[in-house]
Design a protein that fits this description.
Layout: E1 4-6, H1 21-30, E2 33-43, H2 59-70, E3 79-87, H3 96-100, E4 107-111, E5 114-115, E6 119-120, H4 128-146, E7 153-154, H5 161-166, H6 175-191, E8 195-199, H7 201-204, H8 213-221, E9 227-230, H9 243-252, E10 257-262, E11 265-270
Parallel strand pairs: 1-2, 2-3, 3-4, 4-7, 7-8, 8-9
Antiparallel strand pairs: 5-6, 10-11
The structure holds zinc ion (ZN) (2 copies).
Residues 85, 111, 113, 155-156 line the site of one zinc ion.
Length: 271
């Protein structure tokens, strides 16, 4: 492919980033990205209390304001799109219409980071036995996300492996142990016209892509065609990292196109 695409990255509109919008755009451009969708966190739940998180109601508007304020400074040969990483909507399905339907949004990632039982995956202590329990919960909840109709692409399937690995526990999702449920999840996404991303943040930290290659191959073999590439960068120094490898992995897994979203509709560009 002639250039890099990134449809998952963050700016200081996200609570966990301090990067300015323009810095992220310019860093991505300098690293070779020519199609960039900013997808700031739109978290419906406060990860500390599991209560409703009202600032989620402002994220799409802030995305539009940042886009318009920086439009003149975007390089002419770069496309920038407006997205959100809309998370934990299974806790608050009543917000679905309000949060996912602003007409200026180009792209909505369907995302999930918090369990009802134990809170945020980021905060947990991992053991092999607990991981098996967590994967059951993860797949149960992800299936619930997949059955909702608010998003275009499901974000970072299997990313919880990162937190386990950081604590020395290598127990990710695998087709050998969770194949039936993963296949059911992927079939649901395909039937509902949703895609998946290859999230390259795990390529940067040695965990491999999310989802793993075997899951990407399964998605392809089941007829999945909609796939996007995302760095999930939260800092300019991570801009575009892992994207070239991610696009190469997609080719190795048999994909011939990457989907680029404008106003919630994909166009397909050869990989
Ligand atoms: Zn996420
Ligand atoms: Zn993200």
């Amino acid at each position: 492919m002639a250039f890099l695409t990134d449809q998952h990255c963050h700016t200081d509109i996200s609570l966990d980033s301090t990067a300015s919008y323009l810095d992220m755009v310019q860093a991505a451009y300098a690293a070779g990205v020519r199609w960039l969708c900013i997808t700031d966190h739109c978290d419906t739940v406060d990860w500390r209390t599991l209560e409703l998180y009202p600032p989620c109601r402002d994220v799409a508007r802030r995305e539009l304001e940042a886009y318009e304020a920086n439009l003149d400074r975007v390089p002419k040969d770069m496309t920038v799109r407006m997205g959100v990483e809309l998370a934990e909507l299974i806790f608050h399905p009543e917000l679905k219409e309000e949060l996912s339907s602003p007409p200026w949004l180009d792209f909505v990632l369907g995302s999930y980071h918090i369990t009802r039982e134990y809170g945020d995956y980021h905060e947990l202590t991992y053991t092999p036995a607990f991981c098996e329990k967590l994967w059951d919960i993860y797949l149960r909840d992800l299936q619930q996300v997949a059955e909702m109709d608010y998003f275009d692409v499901m974000a970072h399937i299997g990313y919880v492996r990162r937190y386990a690995m950081a604590q020395g526990v290598d127990a990710g999702l695998s087709l050998a142990r969770h194949g039936d449920r993963i296949e059911h999840l992927l079939r649901t996404l395909i039937q509902n016209g949703r895609g998946i991303e290859i999230n390259c943040s795990g390529i940067r930290d040695g965990c491999g892509p999310f989802p793993s290659e075997e899951i990407l191959r399964l998605y392809k073999s089941l007829g999945g065609e909609i796939v996007t590439v995302g760095s999930d960068a939260h800092r300019p120094q991570d801009a575009a990292k892992g994207l070239a490898r991610g696009q190469q992995i997609l080719r190795e897994c048999g994909f011939r196109y990457v989907a680029l979203f404008t106003k919630r509709k994909p166009q397909f560009m050869p990989l």
